[in-house]
Known about the structure:
The complex is a heterodimer of chains A (351) and B (821).
Chain A: H1 3-23, H2 27-38, H3 44-50, H4 60-96, H5 115-129, E1 133-134, E2 140-142, H6 143-146, E3 177-179, H7 185-193, E4 198-207, E5 219-229, H8 234-249, E6 255-259, E7 265-274, E8 291-300, H9 302-307, E9 316-323, H10 324-332, H11 339-342, H12 345-348
Parallel strand pairs in A: 1-4
Antiparallel strand pairs in A: 2-3, 4-5, 5-9, 6-7, 7-8, 8-9
Helix pairs in contact in A: 1-2, 1-4, 2-4, 5-10
Chain B: E1 2-4, H1 5-8, H2 18-27, E2 31-38, E3 43-56, E4 59-68, E5 75-80, E6 90-100, E7 104-105, E8 109-111, E9 114-116, E10 119-120, H3 148-152, E11 154-160, H4 171-182, E12 195-199, E13 205-208, E14 216-223, H5 232-240, H6 248-260, E15 265-268, E16 276-281, E17 287-289, E18 295-297, E19 303-307, E20 310-314, E21 318-319, E22 332-338, H7 341-351, H8 356-362, H9 369-385, E23 388-391, E24 394-395, E25 404-408, H10 411-417, H11 423-432, E26 436-439, E27 445-447, E28 454-456, H12 459-463, E29 466-470, H13 480-491, H14 514-525, E30 529-530, E31 536-537, H15 539-544, E32 567-568, H16 573-585, E33 591-603, E34 606-618, E35 620-622, E36 631-632, H17 635-649, E37 654-658, E38 666-676, E39 682-689, H18 691-696, E40 704-710, H19 711-716, E41 733-742, H20 747-758, E42 762-771, E43 780-789, H21 797-815, E44 818-819
Parallel strand pairs in B: 12-23, 13-16, 30-33
Antiparallel strand pairs in B: 1-11, 2-11, 3-4, 3-6, 4-5, 6-7, 6-10, 8-9, 14-22, 14-23, 14-24, 15-22, 16-19, 17-18, 19-20, 20-21, 25-29, 26-29, 27-28, 31-32, 33-34, 34-40, 35-36, 37-38, 38-39, 39-40, 41-43, 41-44, 42-43
The structure holds zinc ion.
Zinc ion is lined by residues 275, 277-278, 282-283, 285-286, 290 of chain A.
Amino acid sequence: MDLASVSADLAALRQRALAAVADADDLKELEAAETAFVGRKQGALTAVLRGIGALPAEDRPRVGAIANEVREAVEEAIAERRARLAAIALEVRLAAERVDVTLPGRPLRRGSLHPLVETTREIARIFGQFGFVVYESPEVETDSLNFQALNIPADHPARDLWDTLYVDAPTNDGDRLLLRTHTSPGQMRVMRQTRPPIRALLPGRCFRHEAVDASHGFEFFQVEGLMVDEGTTMAHLRGLLDEFAHALFGAGRPTRFRPGYYPFTEPSVAFDIQCVVCDGGGCPACGRSGWMTILGAGMVHPVVLRNGGIDPEVYQGFAFGMGIDRIAMLRYGINDIRYFLENDARFLEQF
Amino acid sequence: MRVPLSWLREYVDVDLSPEALAERLTLLGMEVKGIERRGDDWRDVVVGELLAVEPHPNADRLSLTRVRVDGGGGVLSIVCGATNIAPGQRVPVALPGAMLPGERRIERTTKMGVVSEGMLCSGDELRLTTDAEGILILPAGTPLGARLADVYGDVVLDVDVKPNRGDALSLLGLAREVAAATGAMVRWPAIDVAESGDEAASHLVVEVEDPALCPRFVGRWMDGVAIGPSPLDVQLRLMAAGMRPISNVVDASNYVMLELGKPIHTFDAAAVAGGRLIVRHARAGERLETLDHVVRELTTDTLLIADRTGPLAIAGVMGGAASEVGEGTTAIVIESAIFDPVSIRRTGQRYGLRSEASLRFEKGQEHRLARLGADRTAQLIAAWAGGRVARGVVDTDPVEPPPRRVPFRPSRVGRLLGVDVTADEQQALLARVGIATEGAVAGDLVPIARSSDLMALDAVSAAAALVAIVPGHRRDIAIETDLIEEVARVRGYETIPGERPASSMPGYRPDPRRGLDDLRELLAGRGLDEVVTHALIGPEDHGRLGLAADDPATIRVANPVSLEHSQLRRSLLPGLLRVLIENEHQRRHDVALFEVGSIHRFRDGAPVESLVLGILLAGDWVPGAWDQAARGAEMADVVGLLAWLVDRAGAGRLVAETTASLPTVEHPGRTALLRLVSSGAEVGRAGELDPRLLAAVDARASRAAFATVDVAALLGAVPAVRRLVPLARVPAVERDLAVVVGDDVPAGAVEAVIRDAAGPMLRDVRLFDRYRGAPLGAEESSLAYRLRLQAGRTLTDAEIEAIVAGVVTALGERLGARLRS
Ligand SMILES: [Zn+2]
């Protein structure tokens, strides 16, 4: 063994290694070549270097330098080849992964929130901006809270305004249980549990003995509002209702304030907006009047304040009540109240 | 109240168009719900004169008429089947091409070989009267050739009179309102009775046993009356106002009721034994055949008009058949009485008889109307039916009470309305509705909340106060606020400007619906549809849940709209199932529904309401797609959904526990109890429905997953304030563990033991595989869990192995589980 033959061996090794690297068609072959030629343990180059000990000492650095040069050249070739193979593999993968990008995505269930509940929330949001806070009150009420405390004594002709569903249960001291006919008894509950200033909102389900048609049901939903303070006036009621109507039906929509009748308010108010169907021109939806009534309101009757434990000489306030069903119908252009409780998927999926 | 404008104009001038008048009345609180134009549906119907009426040459039952239909020479030949026609009569003629109500078109036709150039009309065909038999014979002076609509057309306003304004349930009452709106004067009809002969008192005695229930009774007596139809214009007015003409005497009492608002009753005097009327309570066992020919058992709280032989009428509600004015009647008694409103209301409700008359009595009657009504009725009967009115009246309370005086403070008007109205203007506004005012004096009592809730004025406040002198018809005005409303009403609500309140704000109060809305948003975000179903369901619905029809805890409605909506729901499931079925009918089989609503029951005799979340999944839960198979909803879907929901809501971990299922409602092998780990509270149930329940409601689906959750228990477990658990610096360690357990060991128990034995380093445990089959025993399964361990520092291998070994030991000792090798 001499310098010349070792040099020749290294040169041949270099050629074979570069050829093997160049021939490697995939990572596996490339790794096999790497192991075979420049592997630390069994590689051919390592084998050559193991034989260096047999050379004269003065030749060893020279051979070492050549061997390093071969290693670097082969490793460089391997790195290049590896990068090239990776690029090819990526190209192949990307080509294979081509899809019809116009295929529909994997479906998710849509889900929906019911328009009655969402309308209730929207109403609460609007009045919430004016400091009204939400209270809750029960669906099963007593005659005394639903009627008597609200200035509707037994056998009063005004009871004809509410066809009542009574609970089949013995009366308690003459007080009958009933399904609340309106959310107004909530006024009494709020007044009895808190002191003015009061700004309360009471949403809920109500019941009346009514035949079902496109605009009536025996179950429906209302929101009651109550504001009581020392200087709360009818002008404030008007101002707030205007804000509400504009928030819900558009800023420019004209409103109308006219006398109504409720035993628990005085003066009582009917609040109209210009018809959302014909914009005031007159159509069947508004009875050709150009106006639609959206809620009833009024200044809280002094008897009601007294019954709520509030002195009508010091405090005054207003209350309003609106049918959520009706508001939702106007808002979404729903023409049949029965849709709300039927829950047809074709209806729900529009919300 | 239907108000024919032609009739209204007798009492007040109206220069406005019907639309403008309707708006003015509406803005005054007399809401006009509709405007009907009578005669609008007549086209080419004119007034004609019969020249000849001859037999039809080819038909016995028909006549051939010749009719002149204009002032010139236009004469038509018309075939007619009616028998009440004669030459010289004026009749309505529908010309060829005419249109009658109901889109009925009249053409030139040939009837039994004779040409008929139009049609003679009955009152019924024109919807003017109810007579369909004869041709409508018009008064002789009706202008020949005129369009019938010009002569008999009218505009009728439908006015919604509120329950507190019984005084406006009359043409005169509404004329007063028109006058208040326009400033016109009200013209009362000239009420004067030509009396003759002997005294009414010699024919009639009235005895009132309880004057509290009948404060005034005015009677008149007439004889020589000839019963027949009323004059045509009277019939037309009654028809336009919505009342059926009956006979001249009955029509007169209805006319007075509509004109004055005073219900009147007339008796055949021959049926009043001894000419003695007694107003008294019914006695036990008494009965009466009322005008509708129903024999009614009378209860002893029923107020009657009786004679000495027995009941004649239910006072204020309905007359009796035996004393009804009919064809043979010649002498009559006119009753114009005032009854206690509550008594009339209760009686009307008891017998299911609410009439135009009783509705007016219920609202209270002005004292003086009793006499005016009796006089006006006698006057009209004498004019329409002839006869003689006996002298004088029988009157149990002829002295009119003084008008009510209501002291009030004009300063309160501005305070309540938020707009300044001077005392002078208030006086002027009140004068427009007939309320006079004068100065108050110290000591005058202002009624605050009710007429008995009085506040005395001192000298200073009296100087600025007024006293309203309220006319008798305004029974609704009793307290100060009534006058404030009256001022606002007459001035016009539109004069009140809108202002935003500047007063103080209430304190913060958490929105009780906030947590609820979070749940709703989460569920909708997961693809569920929110529904709202009936709170009232039927005994059949409850029966399917195993609740007997007479279950004492069920809240039942005493007067339900229908049996299927007669009980307050005790579960949301029946409503959700109904939605499923309705949607299946629309071929929408994949439903994922939730509802948040109240359920109700009696507990210790008191109603209890609780808020519940209900979920129903049926059909495909994972939707199918072009590269994805659909998968139907199962128990694990709803359990996973709820565990996620509870976690997201902030209530921590939810576990499902084995429980006894509700027979035939819940699937016996697929129903779990849901428990919150944090509070230990049971929050609901979840699983699948028993297929028998689905079959019972005719659902197409044979599998449906469900859950019911107590919302208060769930939201109650959400902490008010969330506190962050510090994040560890070092990554967590994961270890997998597969154990074999017998089928009697539920996975929930395995997980519970793992959590317990692993101790505080365990962050999470997840079942990632479940295997049954060889080489395991037949009643064994292998459960593979991934444990996630974490501490504030790096755990050593020894520590990790010790934890795992502890878990394995505990599983072996407590559940007989072994490691899967
Ligand atoms: Zn309209």
